[in-house]
Structure formats: C-alpha cells, structure tokens
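queue> pop job 88
queue> type: inverse folding (structure -> sequence)
queue> payload:
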C-alpha cells in the first residue's frame, strides 16, 4: 500500500476513503495471505512473489515448533504441538468453539491447561472467551469453559491451512467457511493491535445466535459482527441488540461505511480505526 493511501486510511476521511474502496479491498485480500509478520512482509516487498511469502511463513512455523522443544518443559511439548496444529481444524468448523475432543479423542481440558497457558504466555495464540451476559464489566461474565483459539497472525493461519494465494485473492466458492475464519482472525488481530480492551464473544444459551466479538469501551459494550463478504444481514447481531438494547452496534464487512439507526457498518480495511470511528 502506498504512503498516501496509508495516510488517507489513518485520516478517517470516510468520503475520500470510499473513493479508493476497490483498491483497499484488493490490498486487504493480499494481506489475508501475507499477514503482518515483518520478515514475511519484507520478502513480499522485495520479490512480489507469493511463493516466497509462503516459504518464509513455513520457515517461521518450523521455528516456532523448534522453540517448543527448546523452551517448554519436555512433558508438555507434545500437547503444545497438538494444540498448535489443531487450531486451523477448530476454526474450519461452523461453530468455532474450541473442543478438546478434536485434538485427541477423549481429551480433557486439564490435560492441556499447561500447554495452552504456554502458547498464550508466549503470544502465539489468542484465547477469546464467551460471555453469557452484556453487563459492565464484561470480564465478570466470562464462561471459562467456552472459548475460541486464534493464531497471532492471519498469514500464518493461511500457511498452516495451506490456503493458496489464488483462492484468497480471486475467490472460490468452496472456500466460504474458512474464509469466515480468516476474516475473524484478521479482525481479532486488528482489535488486539489497535485497542487495549479485552475481546470476548457472545452466544445464546441454546447456541442459536452468536456475535463474533464484543468489547467494552468505557461504559459501552459494543458487539461486532464479522462478515467476509458484502453480506449485510446481521441476524444474530439483531437478536443480541433486541435482548440487551446496546447503543452502539458494529458490523464489519467488505461493504462501504454506512450508518443506520441501530447499526454502523465499518469496512474490514478500516476496523483497526474502530475507536476513532466510533468517537
């Protein structure tokens, strides 16, 4: 992305940004594949070669696996590897809630507590806990038995799942479910990088409705529905708003910025500016 476009995105001049929406969407698709790891970005800038990007990503993933053996207690290393390598499988499910039984048949949470803590403490994964209410503070309403796990970087998730560049950049109908996972991964890392708030998700007790993320800005809890395309439906978000009567509600998608009575659509390429936009 050229310097002038970066300045424009940071300016939050919505009308002018919308003029360049197609270009920004194109860059965003590239970012889904490349991600934000400095050495990977440097390789792409130098060669403009997606094969070289993937080679660098695979080397990084190998280096992380070697670090498990070097720095983690020996008896925990196999479980760290199992958790780490299972994340793309978990995110490929329609319900992305982490299930230990998919890591190993009959597995229990207590077997993996140390391994999970190690990955989180090293900054390699993000744990997003479910909240079962929408009161202040959100942290008091966490359900620690229900959570999702994401990687530290969207490009690395692409590499682990062996998603090729053409599939992301040109689109592919068979790719729909995992495209949602990549988009959630991207939005989460943007929220983590650009805000200081904890990030949660919400689902109804029966699991019929789910809001991808919810964050607390001051006295406001803000639900965020993530859409991979320009789909402007937000059924689960509407259910949530009717239940909790939240004042500020966000959908982020490939559609342009728009503000409705009860909902603000923030383009995916601007979600990192959420705090400034909501001001």
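queue> result:
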């Amino acid at each position: 992305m050229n310097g002038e476009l970066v300045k424009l995105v940071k300016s939050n001049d919505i009308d002018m940004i919308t003029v360049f929406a197609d270009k920004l969407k194109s860059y965003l698709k590239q970012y889904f594949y490349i991600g934000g790891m400095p050495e990977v970005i440097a390789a792409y800038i130098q060669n403009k070669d997606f094969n070289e990007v993937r080679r660098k990503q695979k080397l990084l993933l190998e280096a992380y696996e070697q670090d498990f053996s070097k720095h983690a207690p020996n008896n925990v290393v196999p479980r760290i590897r199992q958790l780490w390598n299972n994340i793309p499988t978990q995110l490929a499910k329609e319900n992305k809630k982490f299930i230990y039984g998919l890591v190993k048949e009959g597995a229990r949470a207590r077997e993996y507590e140390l391994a999970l803590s190690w990955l989180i403490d090293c900054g390699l994964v993000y744990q997003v806990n479910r909240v079962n209410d929408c009161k202040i503070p959100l942290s008091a309403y966490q359900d620690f038995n229900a959570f999702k796990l994401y990687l530290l970087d969207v490009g690395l998730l692409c590499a682990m799942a062996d998603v090729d560049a053409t599939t992301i950049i040109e689109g592919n109908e068979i790719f729909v479910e995992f495209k949602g996972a990549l988009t959630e991964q991207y939005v989460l890392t943007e929220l983590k990088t650009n805000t200081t708030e904890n990030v949660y998700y919400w689902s109804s007790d029966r699991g019929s409705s789910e809001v991808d993320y919810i964050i607390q800005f001051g006295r406001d809890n803000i639900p965020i529905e993530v859409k991979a395309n320009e789909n402007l439906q937000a059924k689960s978000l509407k259910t949530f708003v009717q239940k909790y009567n939240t004042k500020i509600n966000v959908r982020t998608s490939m559609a342009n910025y728009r503000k409705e009575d009860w909902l603000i659509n923030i383009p995916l390429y601007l979600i990192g500016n959420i705090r400034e936009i909501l001001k």
